[in-house]
Amino acid sequence: YGTSRARVNLILAEAALRPEFASLITVVNNYRLRSVRLAARELVFEERLSGGGKREVVVATGPNGRVVAADGCNSAVRRAVDEQDEGFSCTVTPWKNEFRVIFAPPGASAPGLDKTVHYIFAGFYAATVDMGGQQTWTCVVGARDGAPRAERELLLSEDPSDANVTALRKLLETRSPLVAPIFGDDELRRFFGRRTFRGAMVQCSRANVGEWLVLLGDAAHSVLPPTGEGINSGLEDAAILAASVRGAPTAPFSEYEAARGADVAGLLSYASYLNDGFDLKVPGEAGARPALPIPQ
What we know:
Largest sheet: 5 strands, antiparallel
Order of helices and strands: HEEEEHEEEEEHHHEEEHHHHE
Structural class: alpha+beta
Radius of gyration: 21 Å
Oligomer: single chain
Strand order of the largest sheet: 6-9-8-7-13
Shape: elongated
Strand content: 25-35%
Number of strands: 13
Number of helices: 9
């Protein structure tokens, strides 16, 4: 069933702290990675001091060290690699949407929808997430850059007025009629108090810097929320990297790049299609994309 990125991160963090992994994993808090120095094989951190203030800490990995960089869409590692490695290139394309989320009551059912499927409704998308052990329907609403002015202003508004709640309900009923009934007026009112979020698609010419460093997850290939492939593709990265370490222990990062590159390219092609498609400017697209199910 569906879950959220935050929930998966919590599960992974709790697993890393389990006693049986104490000899394999060291968790260090209060450090933020600011950059890497490729030639020197060094990591540059900012340490947050207990009494306040910060200081720079440089860690040398040595000739046999390896770095797995999974520091997100705005990766400091990727930026440093782009600046220092002439053979590396990266394209960052902003999403054409800002998103906000609506939550149904935990456990609420949506007749006609399958909770194991991720649905796309012409710029909105719906899926279940785990909320305290219960599958909860969410609808992620996209405010398109190219949307009519009135629609965009509504979806980005912070005013929970009766008029805005009514207008939002009408829009939901038009775009995603199968999920609209499960959201009450109180939840639609809370929608206007939630932050919006926007990210970017990231496409790199390759994920590795020799056998010293490899980019994983959003740092290597950030996509678009409606793909349903953010945390999923990151977990697949980790699984393929683990297989590469076992299969090619002397050159795992090159092995990983060879095994993963084609799938990542396909995923980014799909994400670009969706990002461009949110404008719905091509005749027939609005009718062709009202509901696209993606098994989770």
